[in-house]
Amino acid sequence: xxxxxxxxxxxxxxxxxxxxxxxxxxxxxxxxxxxxxxxxxxxxxxxxxxxxxxxxxxxxxxxxxxxxxxxxxxxxxxxxxxxxxxxxxxxxxxxxxxxxxxxxxxxxxxxxxxxxxxxxxxxxxxxxxxxxxxxxxxxxxxxxxxxxxxxxxxxxxxxxxxxxxxxxxxxxxxxxxxxxxxxxxxxxxxxxxxxxxxxxxxxxxxxxxxxxxxxxxxxxxxxxxxxxxxxxxxxxxxxxxxxxxxxxxxxxxxxxxxxxxxxxxxxxxxxxxxxxxxxxxxxxxxxxxxxxxxxxxxxxxxxxxxxxxxxxxxxxxxxxxxxxxxxxxxxxxxxxxxxxxxxxxxxxxxxxxxxxxxxxxxxxxxxxxxxxxxxxxxxxxxxxxxxxxxxxxxxxxxxxxxxxxxxx
Length: 408
Description:
- The chain is an alpha/beta fold.
- It has helices spanning 27-39, 56-66, 83-97, 111-115, 123-142, 180-189, 200-216, 237-266, 277-288, 299-303, 317-330, 342-352, 354-381, 403-407; strands spanning 4-8, 44-47, 71-76, 101-105, 147-150, 155-159, 172-176, 192-196, 224-233, 291-292, 296-297, 312-315, 332-337.
- Helices cover 48% and strands 15% of the residues.
């Protein structure tokens, strides 16, 4: 399967290293950034969600109406709207975009952030709610007759939507998390399972945990795997590492300034240790070492306290492309990347990294198909018949080669 690339659809130019220059929703910048992704080889962009940030759904609709090819991944928290309402919103957006929507369901890993919008459930309860929510949305997307629902978190009667997605049978559902509860929920319901970038060994372990959860839920078609990184690229290795250290310095300075401002305002200095397993994992990996595998660098994650997608891949475009191919060889076929200068980094990554990765993936896929064809021909010559080797090659969702082979 061809590799895909996911970027970020920010609504302003702020990042961990730079304060935004204008409003939180800068319409012109939002379009310029999205167009830079569409024009430079990216497949889709993520409209993220935050309790106080601009609503991603109308922002996504704005971009969908302006661009023709770029696909949209819309982040959504189940606590902010009833699933009947959300399903109609998503279907309408899929109509506006001509079938370019996927939805990323966020359970929420921070009690304080969830509480900002009235969510008082504990983490395990939130996962159960998200799982029920996704099932309802899927049913609304695909059911043309009224139905009732009596669940643990939602109850309604005689509902049927009058707006349906363009995509048939429905848009893809995306999900992320690194805890057993997340694996169970996402393994059962997700078409795409999202992970933050970790070393190859830990990533392979997480992929297998997701697949085990999917099999335990009775699935035969396993979720596709997406992994996210913060690439830091430059024409030479030396320049890339100089850029990486400048980036970490800027992150630390921004955090110090923010902590000082919070202290003056309400007596709070630094945020508490993260509650979510994914961030805890990133911090533990950073404490164990700064560099892993070919190009993974953890000080960016350490500097942010393990906040979200924060581990970097550092090097020339060729080095970063080869590092991404290592993850592809583990079974990752959606690669998420976001720089610190959102616009310029999206352009550079699209021009100099994406073509290298696509070219090598095409070669791998062609070689794998040639090997399968040779196996089929050999079986026919030996009288085994083509059915004996119909499944030649890895099963859907299995690693393309072993971790040892990757490292070699």
